[in-house]
Design goal:
The structure is a single chain. The chain is built from 7 helices and 3 strands. It has about 190 residues and is an alpha+beta fold. It has a 3-stranded antiparallel beta sheet with strand order 1-3-2. Helix 1 packs antiparallel against helix 3, helix 3 runs antiparallel to helix 4 and helix 4 packs across helix 5. The longest helix has about 35 residues. It is elongated, with a radius of gyration of 19 Å. The two termini are about 30 Å apart.
């Protein structure tokens, strides 16, 4: 990754590479990694002897992952916006406003939509495994942010442009990661 600011946000959310490679990816997980959908998506998986518990665990995990991802996108977008308007004090954001915006976005739960699910049952362990992909619309995140501060509303076009540009950059990074994972799977399959 060439952009140092982008690298900072990526390292906050994603664990360091532990050397293991994913051989096969669930179709629901693949769906969560799709980019260019004007949505922020995440994936959750839960396992339990009771189907409803597995579903609840997966949904809670996907929601928490989505909230972390939204926070990552918002923090990075705010940095990009702040750097583009820092010469104009009228539209600049102070640290208190930044944290207020991030806190509002971290609290997003309503409006999360389930994209797809998959239920598996293991007869040997007698456990259910539930996978879920959830999404949240990027434009709704922008409107929540704009509600938090009058300076953002006053410079809404520039703000929206900078946020979308930053988010596209994060999406491109996530897509390149997905492409690398698919390449590893393809290479493994041809070696068999």
């Amino acid at each position: 990754v060439q952009n140092e600011a982008l690298l900072k946000y990526i390292q906050e959310i994603e664990p360091e590479d532990d050397g293991y490679q994913v051989i096969e990816m669930s179709p629901i997980e693949k769906l969560a990694l799709e980019v260019g959908t004007n949505e922020i998506r995440s994936f959750g998986v839960g396992e339990s002897v009771k189907e409803q518990f597995a579903r609840n665990i997966a949904s809670a995990q996907a929601t928490a992952a989505l909230q972390r991802k939204i926070e990552q996108y918002v923090r990075y977008g705010l940095d990009q916006y702040s750097s583009s308007v820092e010469t104009n004090e009228q539209y600049g954001l102070d640290e208190r406003t930044r944290e207020q915006v991030v806190t509002a976005c971290k609290g997003i739960i309503e409006g999360i939509v389930i994209v797809n699910t998959r239920l598996l049952y293991n007869r040997n362990t007698r456990k259910y495994k539930y996978e879920v992909c959830v999404k949240y619309d990027k434009s709704t995140v922008l409107s929540i942010i704009a509600e938090q501060d009058a300076r953002i509303r006053a410079n809404e076009k520039q703000f929206e442009h900078d946020m979308r540009e930053a988010w596209d950059e994060l999406d491109a990074y996530h897509k390149s990661k997905l492409d690398k994972r698919e390449t590893v799977v393809a290479v493994t399959e041809t070696n068999e």
